[in-house]
């Protein structure tokens, strides 16, 4: 069961990376290219939502003792999805502002371009920070699982030694 979850996890990671890259390109494109990119990102966001639903279904099928780790992963993926949707919404707002400026003949000034560039960089940093936090959380969970396994092995060793002494 967890192999299906991990497969969905990998698909989700690849998809979110593609979405992030495309969201970053939206403000830089013009005209039909921009419209097509927005449509592609919307489709990919829908695919990501469907993957999250599949992952939730898989988590429900996992035995209760292992479910906690997967549930915490799901929370972080949902947060990441929310951030992606917010970033996409911001890029679409920037897109609509650019369309308005094109229609009105307003070229904008360099301070607006600098502001947009700073916002893009800030968003990238935030996304990277979220990914690092998710990686750290997974590492901590893995460490906890390893600790539990070592404790179980230690108890098993003691049992085997006691059984050997009895024989």
Automatic annotation (TrEMBL):
<dbReference type="InterPro" id="IPR038407">
    <property type="entry name" value="v-SNARE_N_sf"/>
</dbReference>
<dbReference type="GO" id="GO:0005484">
    <property type="term" value="F:SNAP receptor activity"/>
</dbReference>
<protein>
    <recommendedName>
        <fullName>Vesicle transport through interaction with t-SNAREs homolog 1A</fullName>
    </recommendedName>
</protein>
<keyword id="KW-0175">Coiled coil</keyword>
<dbReference type="GO" id="GO:0012507">
    <property type="term" value="C:ER to Golgi transport vesicle membrane"/>
</dbReference>
<dbReference type="GO" id="GO:0006886">
    <property type="term" value="P:intracellular protein transport"/>
</dbReference>
<dbReference type="Pfam" id="PF12352">
    <property type="entry name" value="V-SNARE_C"/>
</dbReference>
<dbReference type="InterPro" id="IPR010989">
    <property type="entry name" value="SNARE"/>
</dbReference>
<comment type="similarity">
    <text>Belongs to the VTI1 family.</text>
</comment>
<dbReference type="InterPro" id="IPR007705">
    <property type="entry name" value="Vesicle_trsprt_v-SNARE_N"/>
</dbReference>
<keyword id="KW-0472">Membrane</keyword>
<comment type="subunit">
    <text>Interacts with distinct SNARE complexes that contain either STX5 or STX6. Interacts with NAPA and, to a lesser extent, with NAPG. Identified in a complex containing STX6, STX12, VAMP4 and VTI1A.</text>
</comment>
<dbReference type="GO" id="GO:0005789">
    <property type="term" value="C:endoplasmic reticulum membrane"/>
</dbReference>
<feature type="coiled-coil region">
    <location>
        <begin position="31"/>
        <end position="61"/>
    </location>
</feature>
<dbReference type="GO" id="GO:0006896">
    <property type="term" value="P:Golgi to vacuole transport"/>
</dbReference>
<keyword id="KW-1133">Transmembrane helix</keyword>
<dbReference type="GO" id="GO:0031902">
    <property type="term" value="C:late endosome membrane"/>
</dbReference>
<dbReference type="GO" id="GO:0031201">
    <property type="term" value="C:SNARE complex"/>
</dbReference>
<keyword id="KW-0812">Transmembrane</keyword>
<dbReference type="GO" id="GO:0000139">
    <property type="term" value="C:Golgi membrane"/>
</dbReference>
<dbReference type="GO" id="GO:0005829">
    <property type="term" value="C:cytosol"/>
</dbReference>
<dbReference type="GO" id="GO:0048280">
    <property type="term" value="P:vesicle fusion with Golgi apparatus"/>
</dbReference>
<dbReference type="GO" id="GO:0000149">
    <property type="term" value="F:SNARE binding"/>
</dbReference>
<dbReference type="GO" id="GO:0016236">
    <property type="term" value="P:macroautophagy"/>
</dbReference>
<dbReference type="GO" id="GO:0042147">
    <property type="term" value="P:retrograde transport, endosome to Golgi"/>
</dbReference>
<keyword id="KW-0653">Protein transport</keyword>
<dbReference type="Pfam" id="PF05008">
    <property type="entry name" value="V-SNARE"/>
</dbReference>
<keyword id="KW-0333">Golgi apparatus</keyword>
<feature type="region of interest" description="Disordered">
    <location>
        <begin position="103"/>
        <end position="123"/>
    </location>
</feature>
<feature type="domain" description="Vesicle transport v-SNARE N-terminal">
    <location>
        <begin position="1"/>
        <end position="91"/>
    </location>
</feature>
<feature type="compositionally biased region" description="Basic and acidic residues">
    <location>
        <begin position="114"/>
        <end position="123"/>
    </location>
</feature>
<dbReference type="GO" id="GO:0006891">
    <property type="term" value="P:intra-Golgi vesicle-mediated transport"/>
</dbReference>
<keyword id="KW-0813">Transport</keyword>
